Amino acid sequence: MRVMxxxxxxxxxxxxxxxxxxxxxxxxxxxxxxxxxxQLALPPRTVAVELQMRGxxxxxxxxxxxxTAVAEIGAQQSVLWANDGHYRLKTDTHYPGNIEFRxxxxxxxxxxxxxxxxxxxxxxxxxxxxxxxARSDGADLLLLSPALLLNDAMAHETxxxxxxxxxxxxxDDDAKRAVKLTIEPVRAQVVAAEVDKDRxxxxxxxxxxxxxxxxxxxxxxNGQRIADWTxxxxxxxxxxxxAAFQLPDGYVEKQSRGALRATDLGHGAWxxxxxxxxxxxxxxxxxxxxxxxxxxxxxxxxxxxxxxxQRAAPGKPIAYVVVSHVHGDHVAGLPVYVGDGVQVLAGARxxxxxxxxxxxxxxLHLQEITRARELDLGHTKVVVYPLTSTHASTMLVGYAPQAxxxxxxxxxxxxxxxxxxxxxxxxxxxxxxxxxxxxAVDHIVGVHGRSGDAGDLxxxxxxxxxxxxxxxx
Length: 473
Fold this sequence. Notes:
elongated, disordered N terminus, RibonucZ/Hydroxyglut_hydro
């Protein structure tokens, strides 16, 4: 009887061993989570946290050299996150040619608004996004600071488990996305976080004003690194400046661009307006054929633009597509145009980048232009000029002499709404070409923003930004 009782007891204990082990692991995971939460707790009376970040963004198909697949873009940003969910993001990035982007975003769970403090890309218009986008963007900012992230996690229902990589903590954030944190058990530090296709890693923790923050934060998407913040600092705030979450004066609500349409510039020159992306394709129509300038954004928009061109010039084939330069946003629509003898004209060594972007499945009938070339469209001509540019070594500029119209991409910018902004390096490069070739110019059609004239270009150069504008945001 005693033997049978012992055997029965042993069986019962064996049956419950996995559950007991799981309970032990859960208890251990909870204790490590508790330690991490204590280490990353916000200091008393903290109402907001401010981050200052410097590093590099990795931007595919945006390098000056076509052989470079991913450009390293110098970047800095500041984040202000308040306990009530309001946030402010200031970003500053520098692309080839000393082209600088600055944006200011103010947001909350109810929506967000973005403006361009430099007034060149978006002019003086306010870009607004609805609540779902704002909640997603706001939740992304929390991923830059494990203290904020863990604080957010503890405000939701969390599940903590031990695993080979440490303790994992999962929860659903305000954007209804599944977030997974990984905590290294010995130091009880958050070392990684994952959400959707993104993974963040954290290293080199430092305590600043009683707030623990990793000074090195990396972001990966689908396994590819897209940001490397190598100098990150955090500061807890006990008060928030009154205007911290207000847009500055001088901005207006974004205006409708109207329906997709072709605007006649005269003497066979046209500009496409009203695209979903806001990009402008140019084209010139002769008696026999058409030359198109750039194929922006993607195949769906390019299909719409191609159909519009064919309606504007019925029965006339597209003979050429001139690529201003091989950055991805300017060529993504090329597959729509190829075939039927269409020739793609691009700058020297452009084929390196185009083959990388499109592979062997798309036959572009590419011709690389290394000296000025005249295109005869039938009693209408276009001259294509290669241009040495600091923005892209594959730069081409098109000129329609009868229309006195010049077509360019990323050299000279005028916003759709707003004053003439100071030029970057490309403005001087374009003006140099115009002077050297003695071109008479009434219209300068850019892929971005409204069209201008030679006087606008001259004023932009007069206002030109200094070469180095980096500073504290």
